[in-house]
């Protein structure tokens, strides 16, 4: 059995792998997020994203990036834990970390064929959408599972502990 940590790559290694996939005719799907507490909504979303192409790359916010975006109490799980959990999903082909507020730089480096976010986003508001489309790719939104979010889970846990 392959160690799932081997799916966690640097941007440079992922760029090389992306070129290999391209030569083999694989369509590369790219998405990103914090994925702080892995739940059904995440798994369903990532599985749908993978269904749009051949290879799925997940860019994961680093701990410092999550803190800036979600507040000082987050993330609940550190980036190594989150990365390993996402990499363990069979339909995820690669995980890469980013510390910026958005994955714009990684998107422009990898030039994915398909950029994916949940349908809580409008395609024109997705970071990197213009770049992907300009380079012959497409932007897709996928339906989310109602009622599943890390924020909702955190609030539920807080209420249980009062």
Can you walk me through this structure?
There is one protein chain. It contains 7 helices and 5 strands. With 162 residues, it is an alpha/beta fold. It has a single domain, classed as HUPs (Rossmann fold), CATH 3.40.50. The N and C termini lie far apart (43 Å). The protein has helices spanning 11-23, 40-50, 63-70, 79-87, 104-110, 129-134, 150-160, and strands spanning 28-33, 55-61, 94-98, 114-118, 138-142. The protein has a 5-stranded parallel β-sheet with strand order 3-2-1-4-5. 34% of the residues are buried.
**Helix residue percentage:** 40-55%
Beta strand count: 5
Rg estimate, integer Å:
15 Å
Helix/strand order: HEHEHHEHEHEH
Q: How is the quaternary structure best described? A: single chain
Termini separation (Å)? Answer: 43 Å
Low-confidence stretches: none
Kindly report the CATH topology: Rossmann fold
Give the CATH architecture: 3-Layer(aba) Sandwich
Mean pLDDT: 92
Question: CATH-wise, what's the superfamily?
Answer: HUPs
Structural shape: globular
Major sheet strand order = 3-2-1-4-5
What fraction strand?
Answer: 15-25%
Question: What does the largest sheet look like?
Answer: 5 strands, parallel
**Which CATH first-tier class would you pick?**
Alpha Beta
How many domains make up the 3D coordinates?
A: 1
Number of helical elements: 7
Helix/strand class: alpha/beta
């Amino acid at each position: 059995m392959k160690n799932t940590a081997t799916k966690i790559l640097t941007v440079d290694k992922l760029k090389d792998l992306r070129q290999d996939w391209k030569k083999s005719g694989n369509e590369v799907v790219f998405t990103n997020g914090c994925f702080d507490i892995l739940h059904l909504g995440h798994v369903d979303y990532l599985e749908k994203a993978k269904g749009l192409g051949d290879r799925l790359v997940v860019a994961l916010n680093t701990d410092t990036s999550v803190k800036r975006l979600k507040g000082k109490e987050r993330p609940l799980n550190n980036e190594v834990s989150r990365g390993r959990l996402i990499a363990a999903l069979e339909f995820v082909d690669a995980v890469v970390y980013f510390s910026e507020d958005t994955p714009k730089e990684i998107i422009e480096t990898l030039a994915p064929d398909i950029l994916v976010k949940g349908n809580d986003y409008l395609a024109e508001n997705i970071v990197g959408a213009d770049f992907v489309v300009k380079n012959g790719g497409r932007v897709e939104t996928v339906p989310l599972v109602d009622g599943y979010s890390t924020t909702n889970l955190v609030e539920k846990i807080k209420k249980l502990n009062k």
